[in-house]
Design goal:
The chain contains eight helices and seven strands.
Length: 261
């Protein structure tokens, strides 16, 4: 199998048998076309792309933020309710990338940034300089599955946007989120997810996922992430499905919301 972390198409079978056969055939052809990329991955040469990807992500961020501005503003509008009695708010962002969310955070909160790709730091510093209303603690090069340097119950809010699509284990990330959050703290998320099995969006996701996986540095477009959130053991879950306006059809279905420990 060329692309790890990708659920098989049979998890979301289309109703029409002919459509299913066509989807499988097209996916196979896409897998064949991406075989050279798979060879680069297993030989370690694909790692060079991780140096280029932050620049691509940084430039894409501006377009995505413009299209998702209202959704992000609505998502983060009640962050302040999880502040401490003295008004301080300790926020940890998983997979912060180039700092696309900084502009939406409330004045004065202290932000700790994590990302497994160290090459994002240059662009992250640029976003920090552009968002002086925040206090920045540190940038840690760690994966969301293992944030061992973050103490138990040490943060008020954890944020994760467009990250759970590319982690190796969504369940382990959510376990870490619950560990580092204080009791009563909140986890905010905005993620693209798999489309309804009967839709043509789902067909396109299944077919082109192998190529998207490599272009998106491990991004998987067929995850039903809401199921992991429902099973994660939070005391509250506020989640809604939405269609992101004007973004690529591959990632148009989204979920957004927050959960409380």
């Amino acid at each position: 199998m060329l692309c790890l972390n990708m659920p098989p198409a049979t998890l979301f079978p289309p109703q029409n048998k002919m459509k299913t056969r066509l989807m499988k055939l097209c996916r196979f052809l896409c897998l064949a076309l991406t075989f050279p990329l798979h060879l680069l991955e297993i030989t370690g040469l694909y790692a060079a792309y991780k140096r280029v990807f932050p620049l691509l992500a940084y430039n894409i961020t501006f377009s995505y933020n413009d299209k998702m501005h209202k959704a992000k503003r609505d998502l983060f509008r009640n962050l302040g309710k999880f502040a401490n009695s003295d008004g301080t708010l300790r926020l940890l962002e998983i997979g912060c990338g180039s700092g696309a969310n900084f502009k939406f955070y409330p004045h004065g909160c202290t932000v700790t940034c994590t990302d497994p790709n160290p090459h994002f730091e240059k662009y992250l510093r640029m976003s920090m300089d552009a968002n002086k209303h925040l206090t920045y603690d540190t940038f840690m090069v760690v994966s969301g599955e293992d944030m061992h340097d973050v103490k138990d119950g040490s943060v008020d809010v954890v944020v994760c946007t467009l990250v759970l699509c590319s982690v190796s284990s969504v369940q382990r990330v959510l376990q870490e989120v619950r560990r580092v959050l204080k009791t009563g703290g909140a986890f905010y998320f905005l993620e693209h997810v798999v489309s309804d099995p009967s839709s043509w969006t789902h067909f396109i996701q299944q077919v082109f996922e192998p190529l998207w996986y490599y272009l998106g540095d491990g991004c998987t477009v067929t995850r039903a992430t809401w199921r992991d959130l429902e099973a994660a053991g939070f005391s509250e879950l506020h989640l809604r499905h939405m269609e992101a306006p004007e973004v690529s059809l591959m990632i148009r279905p989204h979920i957004m919301g927050y959960s409380v420990k």
